[in-house]
Sequence to fold (160 residues):
Amino acid sequence: MARTRTVTGAGIIATAALVLIFGNQPFTEWVYRHTSEDTAWGWFLRVLCWPHWAFGPVDGSSGAMRRLLADDLRALLLILFVAVILGVVSKAVTGGAGGFLLGWSALIFASALAAFLTAFIIANPTFIGALKAAHAGSAYGLFVGWIVGAATGTAKGAGS
Fold:
């Protein structure tokens, strides 16, 4: 019996891989030190490392702790929300172009929602700040979501 990847499984794996590989602290620090946002490649790398996360010491201030918690929670919520969206909607998709669009849009919506919700954890949160965070999150989904879309587009749907 051959095992096949489902749309949901492929989307979760692709999203988790993006967050783990490109959102880790050493990669993120390298990108901000060695690239310029004025070049296409530097800009894309900065977008790619948007859901950054870190484990380690912070300066101990309450604001820094809240920022660390918000960043880490945002990365986790991104993966969780992609899983929920794909789990609910993927039953109607059998891969291909539908799977591609579903994976891509799931990352757009999940990243915007994760950013919006975690914006209220930081020190002095505002509604406008949360909307700006959602804007940055949706930009991540728009420009990186095609990678998740490619993974879900090559997977088999639940009904296949």
Remarks:
- The chain has a mean pLDDT of 87.
- Helices lie at 7-22, 25-34, 40-48, 62-89, 96-118, 127-153.
